[in-house]
Structure formats: C-alpha cells, structure tokens
Design a protein that fits this description.
Elements: H1 2-22, H2 40-54, H3 57-70, H4 103-116, H5 123-137, H6 157-163, H7 171-179, H8 185-192, E1 199-201, H9 202-211, H10 217-224, E2 238-240, H11 252-258, H12 265-269, H13 277-285, H14 287-302
The structure holds protoporphyrin IX containing FE and 2-acetamido-2-deoxy-beta-D-glucopyranose (NAG) (2 copies).
Length: 322
C-alpha cells in the first residue's frame, strides 16, 4: 500500500515538474489585473478606438509594435524606450527607423491607464492589449490577453537589428527567426497574416517589384508607378501590404500570395513552391481557420520571455525607466 502511494506521489511530482518546465511563463494570466486594475480593458479600448478612427492605419502600426517588442529580448516594452546616454534603444534600429510608429498613441493609452490605476499596469501589457484591440476593431479575431509582464530597464539596438527578420529574408530565414523565439512555422505563417493591414515603404519592396520573377507582372507595374527604381526621393512612398482591403483584418493577404501579389519579397516566400505553400492555401480558403490560428499564435508570441515577479519595473512613462 505504502509503496503504491509513494509511487503515485513520485509520479505526480514528476508530472508537475514537467508541466512547470514546459511553460516558462506560468506567471502570466488573463486575470492579472482583476483586483488591482479591473477597469484596464475599458480604459484602453476607447483610446485605441479613437486613434484608429482618426487614422485606420494606426491599428496596423500598433499591432506591429507588439511584434517588434516581443522579438527583441521578449515582450518587455523595450521598443518604447527612447535613446539615453547609457544605451542606444530600438527605435532607430534598422527594422524600426522611419518605420515603427504609434508611440504617441501608446503614450495616450498609458496616461489614461495611469490615471485609472497609477503605477500598476506595465507598458509591455499596454502593448499586448493595444495590439489585440486593434485587431478586433479592424474586424479580426479576439482573444483573452495574458497579462503580468513587467517593463525592461534597458533596450538593445543590436538585438533589434538581429532578431527582427528583414523583408529580404528567405523562407528558411523566416522559419529560423521565429524558431529562435519558440514559434513554429505554422505560427510564422499565421502571424504573417498581420500583413492584411498596414503599409510598407518603397524601400522595403523595391527589389521585389523590379528584380524578381515570382510576382504578377501587372501588380508589379502598378507598384512600380509609385516606387521609382532608383533609391532616393521615393524611398518613403507607401503601398498597402494587402492590395484589396488594407484596413480590414481578413484573409485576403493569403489570397494575394496565391496570385503572386505579395508586396514584400518575404511575403511571397510563404507561397513560392516551398514547405509553407499548403498552409497559405489553407488560410486563403478558410477565413475562420486563419483567424483562430492567428489568435492562438498571438497568445504564443505574447509569452516570449516576459519579465515577471520582481524583475524589471512598472514604468510610469513608457519612454523612460523610472
Ligand atoms: C514574417 C516576417 C516579417 C517580416 C519580414 C516583416 C516585414 C515588414 C516590413 C518590411 C514592413 C513594412 C515596413 C516599412 O516599410 O516601413 C512591415 C509592416 C507591417 N508588419 Fe511585418 N513583417 C513580418 C511579420 C510580421 C508580424 C508577425 C506582424 C504582427 C503580428 C507584422 C505586422 C506588420 C504590420 C501590421 C505592418 C504595417 C505597419 C504600418 O502600416 O504601420 N509583421 N512588416
Ligand atoms: C543597427 O543597424 C543600423 C542600420 O543598419 C546600424 O546603423 C547600426 O549601427 C546597427 N546597430 C548596432 C548596435 O548594431
Ligand atoms: C536588381 O539587381 C541588380 C543586379 O543584382 C542590382 O544591380 C540592382 O540594384 C537591383 N535593383 C533593384 C531595384 O533592387
């Protein structure tokens, strides 16, 4: 008798340990602020809503900020820090310079949250909630956002340069850079569906529209008309990542790829005769599969290396450490 219950106790212990090891972020939870700031969601949503009402693209910009935060040493609000004398931050790193935007909206959200619950809600969590709200407002799926992240006290331009994949990436490089943060190939393809909203600069897609053959030729000419071949004055001209519905969160991104109308080289890599073609076909034909996989992958991305417990801090102003 005693030996049987000892064995089952040992088994239970082993199983619990395995579960703990399996989830590196057992501390994040959807009800983290239910006592300390129950009004966090109702405080944030109207600020995001009004920013998107003023400019629909802002929803895309806010979603992208969360991605660029999470990929650089985890979802810790590091992208929001301005440069200081002791570190060069991420805002001017190659993937963000002249490109990442929405920082003023985050400031407005944070001010509203500080008014409601001073010193309680992290900037990293503000980014997570703001990204979800943006997707919902533009017609995408909803999900329960896990919370309890704390804010970094530093930022890294080098890590931002190295961890966020550039639009020149091959399929292998895309797969690897997501694998490096614990995301699967399927997660990578689902999260890339974020390019159903927002804009890119000519400099990000010039080589693809002039120099590559895996692109619909009439789509290439259309994009060439506002993106001159020579770099220079046209570098910042914008084009929609989804030519059909650039402010609606739907699965048209994948339908475009099936017709070789991806804007970025990296977009078209997902449907170019390689291992991810079948996933693109699946999302292109099923809006509901795309939306549920996107939501699941956003939760996974939000789990990347959060600071919890007594690590980091709750910044008062997202632009600087306390
Ligand atoms: C798979 C690898 C990815 C690459 C190579 C990539 C690259 C890019 C590039 C080059 C731009 C245009 C930037 C510019 O020209 O200023 C862009 C825009 C954007 N990206 Fe990605 N991205 C990737 C994945 C993601 C993910 C995972 C998300 C979010 C979940 C995302 C969300 C966005 C959004 C919403 C925009 C438009 C932003 C705006 O209009 O302000 N991207 N991306
Ligand atoms: C990051 O990339 C930019 C642009 O290529 C470069 O100017 C900068 O020196 C890089 N920063 C670091 C720390 O590597
Ligand atoms: C196209 O490729 C050629 C040859 O590699 C290169 O010299 C040129 O700069 C590229 N053009 C664009 C627009 O990327």
């Amino acid at each position: 008798m005693a030996s049987i219950s000892n064995t089952s106790l040992a088994l239970t212990t082993v199983v619990s340990l395995l579960l703990l090891v399996g989830s590196s972020n057992a501390q994040l939870s959807t009800n983290f602020y239910s006592k300390s700031c129950p009004q966090v969601f109702t405080t944030i949503k109207p600020v995001v809503q009004s920013a998107i009402k003023q400019e629909a693209r802002m929803g895309a910009s806010l979603l992208r900020l969360f991605f660029h935060d999470c990929f650089v040493n985890g979802c810790d609000g590091s992208i929001l820090l301005d440069d200081t004398s002791t570190f060069t931050g991420e805002k001017n790193a190659a993937p963000n310079k002249n490109s990442a935007r929405g920082f003023n909206v985050i400031d407005n959200v944070k001010s509203a949250v500080e008014k409601a619950c001073p010193g309680v809600v992290s900037c990293a969590d503000v980014l997570a909630i703001t990204a979800r709200d943006s997707v919902v407002i533009l017609g995408g799926p909803s999900w329960n956002v896990k919370l309890g992240r704390r804010d970094s006290k530093t930022a890294s331009q080098a890590a931002a340069n190295n961890s966020i994949p550039p639009p020149t990436s091959s399929l292998n490089r895309l797969i690897n850079s997501f694998q490096n943060v614990g995301l699967s190939t399927k997660d990578m393809v689902a999260l890339s569906g974020a390019h159903t909203i927002g804009q890119a600069r000519c400099t990000s897609f010039r080589a693809h529209i002039y120099n590559e053959t895996n692109i619909d030729s009439s789509f290439a000419s259309t994009r060439q008309s506002k993106c001159p071949r020579q770099s220079g004055s046209g570098d910042n001209n914008l084009a929609p990542l989804d030519l059909q519905t650039p402010t609606a969160f739907d699965n048209n991104y994948y339908k475009n790829l099936l017709q070789r109308k991806g804007l970025l080289h990296s977009d078209q890599q997902l449907f170019n005769g390689g291992s991810t073609d079948s996933i693109v076909r699946n999302y292109g034909s099923s809006q509901s599969t795309f939306k549920s996989d996107f939501a699941a992958a956003m939760i996974k991305m939000g789990d990347i290396k959060p600071l919890t417990g007594s690590s980091g801090e709750i910044r008062k102003n997202c632009r600087k450490t306390n």
